[in-house]
Structure formats: C-alpha cells, structure tokens
Amino acid sequence: MTTLAIIGGGIAGRSLIYALAKKKNSFSKVILFDSDQFAPTCSLRSTAVVAPRGITTGHSELGDLLSASFLKFKQHVEKEKPSGVHPIVQKTFATSKVDAFIKRYPQHSFKDGVYSSIENGFLIETKTYLNWLLEKSRDLSFEVKNGFVINIEHKDELVELKLNNGEVFQAHKVIMAGGSYNRFWRGLSPAKPLSSSAPVQGAYLEFSDVDYGPLSFSITFDGDNFVYHAHSHILLIGSSTQQVGHELPPVKDLSRIYERLRLNLNFELPPFEKAIKITGQREKASQRKPYIIHEGSLSWIGGFYKNGYSLGLELAERMVDEL
Ligand SMILES: Cc1cc2nc3c(=O)[nH]c(=O)nc-3n(C[C@H](O)[C@H](O)[C@H](O)COP(=O)(O)OP(=O)(O)OC[C@H]3O[C@@H](n4cnc5c(N)ncnc54)[C@H](O)[C@@H]3O)c2cc1C
After folding, report:
1. How far apart, in Å, do the first and last CA atoms of the chain sit?
2. What is the per-residue pLDDT for 246?
3. Residue ranges of the chain whose pLDDT lies below 70
C-alpha cells in the first residue's frame, strides 16, 4: 500500500485531490490533513474572482502560466459545470498608473479621464466550490483528517507526520499545500522558490442584503475591488492592505478603500459599520512565481498569491503529472 499525505485543504490541496481522482496514479491511499486551527485558510478569505486581467502570452513565464491557468479554469467550468462558480463581467478602471494599464489592456476605452476595459470572468462562492472539488473526487480513495501537522520526519523509507492532538501517521510521500504556512517547512528544503516565500495580507468588507440587480459583476478601480454576488446579495469591497504583522482586519485601510470606491463609483453603498471585516494571508513566493518542488519523498506546491482560484487546477495537474 502506497500512502500520499497532503497537508492543507485550501484550493491547492483540494485541486490536487481533484486532479489525482482524474488521473491514474500509484497511491492506494491519500490523506488530506486539513485544520485551520492555527492557520486561517486563505481560500475561504478570498474575493475569489477569476479573470484574464489583460494578461496575454509571449511576454513572461509568469504571464504564460497565468494565461494557461485561466484557459484551463474556463474549460473546467464549461465542461464540468462546478457548483459555486458564476460567470461575471470584470470591469477594470484606471486613473493612475495609466501607462501600465494601456500596455496591459490595448483594447481599452477612455472617457471623462478614466481608462476602462471589460472582460468575461468568473466569480466563486468559495465554500461551495471547495466542497464540490472533494465531492467530485470520489473515484479516489482519500480521507480528510481534521488535524494540524506539527512535525514531519524521515523514518527509514517512510515519512512520519505528527499531529497536534498526538496522532502519528506514516506516508510514502508528503505534499505541503499549506498556502502561506508552507514557509514553516522550508527548513526541510534548500530549494530556492520557497526560500523567500512570505505572507502578504489582503482584506475586504463583506456586506449582506445588498441589491444591485440580477447580474453578478466585479469592478476594479485603481486597484480597489468591488465584487457583487447577485445570487446571495453579498457585496465585497477590498484590496491589498498594509502589512500589520497580525491577522486582524486592518480597519483603517478598509475605510480608505471604502471611501475611494464611494467617491469613484456610481453605487449607493451600505454604511461602513454594517460590514464584516475579513482578512487573509496570501503567499507571495520569489518573483511572484508559483512553485512546484520535489525533493525525494517531500514535495511543495504554492505561491499562488493573488491568483489561487485560477492557478489551482493548472498547477495541481502539472504536479500530479510529475508524481
Ligand atoms: C483578500 C484576498 C482576496 C483574494 N482575491 C483573489 C481573487 O480574486 N482571485 C484569486 O484567484 N485569488 C485571490 N486571492 C488569493 C487566493 O485566495 C489564494 O492564492 C489561495 O486561496 C491560496 O490557496 P492555498 O490552498 O495555497 O492556501 P490556503 O487557502 O491558505 O490553504 C492552506 C491550508 O493549509 C492548512 N494548513 C497549513 N499548515 C497546516 C498544517 N501544518 N497542518 C494542517 N493544515 C495546515 C491551512 O489551515 C489552510 O487550510 C485572494 C486572497 C485574499 C486574502
């Protein structure tokens, strides 16, 4: 019996399970360790929009990967019709950094001092889609273990994993898919991409009972995001926020983002005080590049940074091909 252990049940870990279920593999048992007791799941604290964002192929390795990932996700939605994924229009506006905007969106419009571009994309209800990935993986013999891995050690031909509740597991192969918490295991790997991986905070306000009509949409205005979920009447407002060294939502930053969008967009906003404030830690790896690393019986996948929901599937399939 060959056992694979995957640490982390965010979009990376669940996409791996989904990709393993789709492809013949040599593991007779797969265990997904998932517990956000010490490490809040970024995938559940994400505005989760998937759109091409003007990126085209032929300019950089990262651009090529992001383009391929968007295409893969689009095909996945068309073919598999996953729960929790909705088509949207992504509108991007810019009044600052316009040179970069024009370069990225050559087909832009310009009116009243504002540059704009419109694309088709997807909006994800995170919990629903993350659950769907596991539900659709029943062809694979896997088990989800609710426990936090606190130690990994080589024991002869096997790897031993210790959980915070004292349980011990053995596996032939271990994949770290712990998002920004992968950095705590980098001492086990001399590989470069992981060496400077760091958490970068993002945060947003979540308003309920909002009604801007029957269609979901996402607007990005000078980097600030306004995401409307028509099906659940939820509005998200957020952006990258200042590093504060802890995991509480940065209320001052969020209030500035809210104020900028209130002034720039033509929507009546619910009062700031009504919002739930949410923050997540994204993993930014060296040169913003996602990584797949293999070293003997240990492997790492991550560095999804701002594009976890499009990169998940593409990177998971690449990793499964390499196992
Ligand atoms: C505010 C915000 C907005 C965002 N907007 C978008 C967007 O619009 N589009 C987009 O595509 N992406 C977006 N992202 C980025 C995206 O959410 C992330 O890239 C993605 O969720 C990372 O997924 P992951 O699986 O690598 O990590 P995570 O989702 O963090 O999953 C890792 C899991 O591993 C678990 N774990 C870690 N260590 C251990 C351990 N030792 N034992 C057991 N479990 C462990 C954690 O608890 C967690 O559940 C956004 C992120 C934020 C914060």
Report:
1. 16
2. 66
3. 190, 243-246
Superfamily the domain 3-322 falls into:
FAD/NAD(P)-binding domain (3.50.50.60)
Residues 203-227: b if buried by 16+ CB within 10 A, e if exposed: bbbbbeebeeeeebbbbbbbebbbb
Nearest CA to ligand 1 atom 50: 46
Is residue 87 within 8 Å of 120, Cβ to Cβ?
A: yes
Going from the Cα of 35 to the center of ligand 1, the distance in angstroms, rounded, reads 13
Which tokens in the block code for residue 16?
């791996």
Mutate-to-test residue for ligand 1 from 7, 42, 184, 236, highest number of ligand atoms within 8 A of CB = 42
Query: Model's pTM, two decimal places?
Result: 0.95
Q: Looking at ligand 1, which residue's alpha carbon is closest to its atom 47?
A: 36
**CA 24 – ligand 1 centroid, Å:** 27
Phi, psi for 283 (deg, rounded to 5): -105, 115
Tell me what pLDDT residue 236 has.
98
What the block records as the tokens of 294 is 């293999």
Q: Where do the domains of the chain lie? A: 3-322
Query: What tokens were used for 67?
Result: 């383009």
233 φψ region: left (φ > 0), alpha (ψ -120 to 50), beta (else): left
Q: Tell me the helices (H) and strands (E) count for the chain, helix number first.
A: 6, 18
The Cα–Cα gap between 323 and 320 comes to 5
Which pLDDT score is estimated for 186?
A: 79
Sign of CA dihedral 173, 178, 181, 182: positive
Determine the pLDDT at residue 289.
93
Binding-site residues, ligand 1, Cβ < 6 A = 7-13, 33-36, 39, 41-43, 45-50, 148-149, 177-179, 181, 202-204, 238, 280, 282-283, 302, 304-310
In the reported structure, the alpha carbon of residue 272 is separated from the centroid of ligand 1 by a whole-number distance in angstroms of: 26
